[in-house]
Structure formats: C-alpha cells, structure tokens
Design brief:
The chain is mostly helical. Helix content is about 75%, strand content about 5%. Strands 1-2 form a two-stranded antiparallel sheet. The longest helix is centred in the last third of the chain and has 36 residues, at about 80-115.
Length: about 120
C-alpha cells in the first residue's frame, strides 16, 4: 500500500528515519566484515538495478489500478536481510529522486504554458 505525502506526522517520520539509519549502519558494519565483499558488492549492485527496473514496469489490472513487481523478498532470500536493506535503500533513493525530477519538469512545463498565454 502506498502512503500519500503528508499522512505521517513529522515526529513519527523522524522515528522511522532514526530506525532506518540504525538498520543501515548495522548493515554497513556487517557488510564491511564479510570476506567475500567483492562478489557481494557486484551482486548488490546488480540486484539494485534489477529491483529498480522491475518496480518501474507497471502491469494493468482489470480493476484499473496499475500493479508493479516487488522483488525485495527475493533479494532478501538471495543476499540476506542486511544487504537487502542496502538494496531497498538505494532503490527508494533512486525512485524518489526520479519522482522529484518528474515533478520539477511538470512545474516547469506548467510555468512555460502559463507564460505563453
């Protein structure tokens, strides 16, 4: 389920941010102690790219609500929970930056249309 912007209060979202940063710190510490970091690094990057592409593909449904693939559980099974948290973090960061860029382009286009009249 997608939560619309502004639905979670700021103080509650700060708690979630602190928890997320703690999990990322643990995963970075755990990741740095692994012996096969080269192989894991390549696999983490590859699965991050696959996750971004898979969630970008929308599937039409009969009810009119588009669906998308969610493969983070598969990533958890392949990489483990700590590296999967890194994959999900990079995936969310990329998706949010793309959404911000699209919104910026939308506002620039609207301004251009407004100024042309």
């Amino acid at each position: 389920m997608h939560i619309p912007d502004g639905l979670i209060p700021l103080d509650q979202s700060m708690i979630y941010l602190a928890i997320s940063l703690g999990i990322l710190a643990i995963s970075f510490k755990y990741y740095s102690k692994k012996a096969d970091t080269g192989k894991r690094l390549v696999l983490t990057g590859l699965l991050t790219a696959i996750t971004i592409v898979a969630t970008s593909l929308t599937i039409p449904s009969p009810m009119g609500i588009p669906m998308h693939f969610f493969i983070i559980p598969l990533v958890v099974l392949i990489l483990g929970p700590f590296n999967a948290s890194l994959v999900h973090f990079w995936h969310c960061l990329y998706r949010q930056s793309c959404l911000e860029w699209v919104e910026l382009q939308h506002w620039v286009l609207m301004y251009w249309i407004w100024e042309s009249f």
